[in-house]
Design a protein that fits this description.
The structure holds two protein chains of two kinds.
Chain A lengths: L3 H4 L19 H13 L2 H15 L22 E3 L15 H5 L5 E7 L5 E9 L8 H5 L5 E3 L13 E3 H4 L3 H5 L16 H4 L8
Antiparallel strand pairs in A: 1-4, 2-3, 3-5
Chain B lengths: L2 H36 L15 H11 L10 H18 L9 E3 L2 E3 L9 H11 L2 H9 L3 H32 L4 H7 L8 H4 L1 H15 L10 H4 L9 H26 L8 H24 L5 H28 L1
Antiparallel strand pairs in B: 1-2
Classes of the chains: A alpha+beta, B mainly alpha.
């Protein structure tokens, strides 16, 4: 392979160099240029363009608080904690991987052994003032428990504002109504995973 | 001078002041809306239906803002400068016939404050005095941007006074009067009688100079936001800045009245249709000020001077000479 192919940055063959005239050197040339520019009527082209847009009235404004842009399913805003679809218990197993991988060191997780000798999350908070919404926590989560949601309208009185486990957890009634959305971004299962997955050799 | 005339004049002055102060506010609304539509935006929408009360909100803001006099300014001149701008703009309105005369409750009203026989000269002179607003305000502000703006303002206004005066000289020679009423009578016969057909060059020159006189976009370098912040208005706040603003918009409205009165037949024969025609022409010229702001770039100060002294002024002089020869033979 030759280097030339990498240096050729023409994304399309229809690119061409604009024909720029040389600057006039004498007074007569400058005079001719002024006359040509004066009577070419380019000012009226500009007037027509803006008037055309006004008549077409093709308004692109989104009146923000009333109207909102649709955001993609992979949008990385404030985190969400998912529940298991079947039992409704929280998916988080308290492994602490998200705390470990967090590059801005904003996740704090604390666990304890509950009465059934199962590991349980006792404290979980994310400092949104530090979080850079990189998505590593969602990517590393083995249980698809912590994901990113679409809630991007944050306001607080100080830089360090926290979001707690209970705030992020899907409400149980929303889960029962089938409204828990799976995150399609980092670490999520891809769609139609069931059809594509190969069975392990043991099942042959 | 009888008492009735005095009362009538005072009422007319108050009406003109009130209407054009309000129009200046509404003009900002139209400017924001028209510019927004031309840029595929909506403009003000939240205050009142379709943002109509935005004007009132802006007014409340301007009136209630703190009136700051910065430390190093020349206080008296700094305080008087915005008043000069607004006052001269409104003083120029005294010689403009806004409508044909009409009868109200059996009393004939002349919608012109003072029909002086040197009306055009008066209007041009007072608009020339308007230069002192930006000039004094900019020089007194103790701010380099304001100073630049004052220098530019002086250069532009003085240069374009020349073009305005010379371009209008040829129509004045034809009409033989300096009164806008006489101009209107001269063109009262219909579209064929309009001065613009016999003086198209003067019309275009006066129109171009009007942009410089009002400091609108192709020649907006006196308060060019991206170069010198707000120019002479940088240090002003509250209603003092608002007076500059009202002066600028009132000037736009008055120039938009003067151009049709001089060149496009004014209110014609004085019928209702003629009066509406004058308002429509005024609306078009005001709209054109906003239109060019959306479409055209600003030019450099040296280009503006070049345009004035090397292009427009010679053309105006040639126009006068040709008009003189045509009238002589």
């Amino acid at each position: 392979m030759h280097n030339e192919q990498f240096n050729n940055r023409n994304v399309s063959e229809s690119y061409f160099l604009v024909d720029i005239e040389d600057y006039p050197t004498d007074g007569w040339g400058r005079f001719k240029r002024v006359v040509k520019r004066t009577f070419r009527g380019e000012l009226f082209v500009g007037l027509w363009v803006v008037l055309r847009e006004m008549i077409k009235f093709d308004i692109h404004t989104i009146q923000y608080p009333q109207e909102k842009m649709p955001i993609g399913p992979r949008y990385r805003a404030v985190h969400e904690m998912k529940r298991l679809w079947e039992s409704g218990t929280e998916r988080c197993i308290g492994c602490g991987l998200c705390e470990k991988i967090c590059i801005s060191d904003c996740i704090r997780i604390d666990t304890k052994i509950d009465e059934n000798s199962r590991k349980e999350v006792s404290e979980y908070s994310i400092n949104l003032g530090r979080c850079i919404f990189c998505g590593y926590c969602a990517e590393v989560c083995p249980e698809l428990a912590i994901t990113h949601g679409g809630r991007y309208e944050n306001a607080s009185e100080q830089r360090e504002h926290f979001v707690m486990f209970e705030d992020m957890l899907t409400p149980i009634d929303a889960l029962k109504a089938g409204k828990q959305l799976e995150f399609e971004g980092f670490g999520a299962i891809t769609p139609h995973e069931d059809e594509r997955v190969k069975k392990t050799p043991l099942s042959y | 001078m009888d008492i009735a005339y005095l009362i009538e004049t005072v009422i007319k002055v108050v009406v003109v002041l009130l209407i054009f102060s309000a129009l200046a506010g509404i003009g900002t609304y139209f400017e924001r809306k028209v510019l927004a539509f031309m840029q595929r935006r909506l403009g003000p929408m939240n205050v009142g239906p379709y943002g109509l009360l935005q004007v009132a909100a802006d007014g409340v803001k301007l009136f209630t803002k703190e009136d700051i006099i910065p430390a190093n300014v020349v206080p008296n001149i700094f305080k008087i400068a915005p008043v000069i701008t607004a006052a001269t703009a409104f003083m120029a309105a005294a010689a403009i016939p806004f409508l044909p005369e009409f009868t109200l409750l059996g009393y004939t009203v002349h919608p012109i404050v003072a029909d002086i026989n040197i009306g055009i000269l008066y209007i041009l002179g007072i608009m020339g005095v308007g230069l002192y607003g930006p000039l004094l305000g900019g020089m007194a502000s103790a701010n380099k941007f304001s100073l630049l703006s004052a220098a530019r303002g002086a250069a532009v206004f003085i240069s374009y006074e020349v073009v305005t005066g010379l371009s209008i000289l040829a129509p004045i020679m034809m009409v033989g009067s300096l009164s806008l009423i006489d101009f209107n009578k001269y063109q009262a016969g219909g579209i064929g009688d309009w001065v613009v057909w016999s003086q198209p060059v003067a019309f275009v020159l006066f129109w171009i100079a009007a942009f410089a006189e009002t400091g609108r976009t192709p020649f907006h370098l006196i308060a060019n936001d991206h170069e010198i912040i707000d120019g002479f208005g940088t240090e002003y706040s509250g209603m003092r800045w608002g007076l500059f603003f009202i002066g600028e918009y009132a000037n736009m409205f008055f120039i938009s009245f003067v151009i049709p009165l001089l060149f496009l037949g004014g209110y014609g024969d004085g019928s209702l249709l003629g009066a509406l025609g004058l308002l429509a022409k005024m609306a078009f010229f005001f709209f054109f000020f906003l239109w060019t702001r959306a479409a055209w770039p600003d030019i450099r100060p040296d280009q503006l001077m070049w345009l004035c002294w090397k292009v427009l002024m010679p053309i105006a002089v040639i126009n006068i000479v040709i008009t003189g020869f045509v009238m002589m033979f």
